[in-house]
Amino acid sequence: MIQRLYIKNNTKATYNIAYTKHFVPNASMHFHDFYELEIILSGTGTTTINQTTYEVKPGSIFLLTPSDIH
Fold first, then answer.
1. What is the pLDDT of residue 50?
2. Mean of per-residue pLDDT scores for the chain
3. If you placed Cys at 64, which of 4, 24, 36, 56 could pair as Cys (CB 3.0 to 4.6 Å)?
């Protein structure tokens, strides 16, 4: 399982930024109405962004925009 750190510019948060650190199983494709920075902390696997699949490992970083389906 991959451990991910998410940093999001969530307008509902007190400081307009929310972050979470957790293990995430594969989820259904979705998008958000905010930017999301994802940092892989541990584990290996794949992630799919806009119909392209990428290998991920610790140190992999993704900046997702509101138009990115992931």
1. 93
2. 76
3. 36
Segment 62-70 shows an average pLDDT of: 88
Strand partners, 61: 39
Q: Is the dihedral of CA 27, 19, 42, 37 positive or negative?
A: positive
pLDDT at 32 over 70: yes
Amino acid identity, position 36: E
Do 54 and 32 contact (CB within 8 A), yes or no?
A: no
| C-beta of residue 57 within 8 angstroms of C-beta of residue 47 | no
- Over the chain, what HEC string results? CEEEEEEECCCCCCCCCEEEEEEECCCCCCCCCCCEEEEEEECCEEEEECCEEEEECCCCEEEECCCCCC
pTM to 2 decimal places: 0.66
